[in-house]
Amino acid sequence: xxxxxxxxxxxxxxxxxxxxxxxxxxxxxxxxxGPIFELFCKQASSxxxxxxxxxxxxxxxxxxxxxFGAAKGKLPGNLVSLTLSLVSGLEGDMYLIMDxxxxxxxxxxxxxxDGSAPYTDEAKEAVSELFNQxxxxxxxxxxxxxxxSVSAGNVSVAEFSFAxxxxxxxxxxxxxxxxxxxxxxxxxxxxxxxxxxxxxxxxAKVSKSSPAMADLNVGISQSEMDALxxxxxxxxxxxxxxxxxxxxQFAPPPPPPRQSTYDGPRENIDLxxxxxxxxxxxxxxxxxxxxxxxxxxxxxIVELDxxxxxxxxxxxxxxxxxxxxxxxxxxxxxxxxxxxVSAEDRxxxxx
Length: 351
Fold this sequence. Notes:
Blueprint: H1 7-18, H2 23-52, E1 56-65, H3 68-74, E2 79-88, E3 90-99, H4 100-110, H5 123-146, E4 151-152, E5 156-160, E6 172-181, E7 185-194, H6 195-209, H7 211-214, H8 222-236, H9 267-270, E8 279-282, H10 290-294, E9 312-316, E10 319-329, E11 332-340, H11 343-350
Antiparallel strand pairs: 1-6, 2-3, 2-4, 2-5, 3-7, 6-7, 8-9, 9-10, 10-11
Helix pairs in contact: 1-8, 2-5, 2-6, 4-5
């Protein structure tokens, strides 16, 4: 199928907008936002399960326009709001609303407890760190889905009440998911997504699936649509088709990226291919006093000098050769390479 719209399709879209109907637009909106929320739930299940050392399932049930009445029915207890931010690739905040009892169970399990400890204000730092890991895995998976680099900011935690939300329900979308922790939790979580962030998600998904539709996303004005119609008629020309699109010349696709920057003879390089090297991943560094080190115990948190979501170093024989993002694959940690140190910098590091 062509990535370009026919004149009939453009006319149909113009007519739909002029008639004011938005039912189809709403359906398309949640077809875009729904999979993004489902991807978050999948990554949350994996990371929370690893941290809790037991099965944790977060399963998306619905994604629609925000309805605080329905949300209250799902979350009747005392609540906290986790502000989950994306700062590059996609930019915006999503608010994850959870019952304090659920948060207390997750934090206690992460601290190697039995899940019976109640939620306290001291747990805010721990749950923030826990969901920093979730957002790290989510941003990596989302970047792969959208085909671009996506990074997350630090998670913040605050008290929440539907009587005093950070924004009006009329200006937000809402995702509802069921969270279960074997033998301990059977509850709901609600994600509130401000319309501005939802619009970014829709634009990104539409752009990925159809470059032409990216220019016709929800919210485009009538004057812009008229200009697009006029441009389509003048730029593509009339080749006897009575106003339909004429023949189109496409530029050849760019050549594929080269797999190696080495252009010299390979005979000597081949002799080294079986040489084994030590590879280490450095998440960050920290300086602690001897007293602080002696006070370390299971559950202690050591703060590193890198921000959450910042690329980590891949080190070969004590030399940094690449930057990567931490990922979780089948309960194993790894990194996805996002950039390589230039050949010039690698040579300088050998001196």
